Amino acid sequence: MLTAGQAADSPQFIPVLGKIRVRVPVGRPRTRPDAVAADKAYSSRGNRAHLRRRGIKAVIPEKRDQAANRRKKGSAGGRPVSHDADLYKERNTVERLINKLKAWRGVATRYDKTPASYLAGLHLRASMIWVKDLTRTTR
Questions:
Q1: What is the 3 state secondary structure string of 105-122?
Q2: Tens digit of pLDDT for each residue in 78-108?
């Protein structure tokens, strides 16, 4: 999903999750992943409730202020949020890809006037990264 450059990512969490298709070796792509790893910006009650309703494991660390507010409420604040630290480390792969995409100044600063031209540049940069990775692994 393409949004304005200054828009926050967190409100787009549920719409993006709706478009995800997880490829498996056999059969059609699944629409429900086993787990979703995200950074603290996505730690909201609404996002966690949506994942819980769909039976998806949330691998999202709790924000410090949310944890303090929960503790301040005492037993009425609910249980602490659990999060799988080993699975969270896999998020690093996505962060590295985003850094590679943003190595192109046009992608990082969004100079393009139209969403279509920005998306075309993003696809071009992703293709270049993919081809470079293919040539590196075949040697």
A1: HHHHHCCCCCHHHHHHHH
A2: 777 777 888 888 888 888 998 999 998 888 8
Tokens of 138: 């075949």
pLDDT at 138: 59
Please state the domain extents for the chain. Answer: 1-87, 90-139
pTM beyond 0.90: no
HSE-up (13 A, CA, CB side) for residue 43? 16
d(Cα 78, Cα 60) in Å, to the nearest integer?
A: 17
Distance of CA 136 to the CA centre of its chain: 26
Contacts of 118 (CB under 8 A, 6+ apart): 2, 107, 110, 112
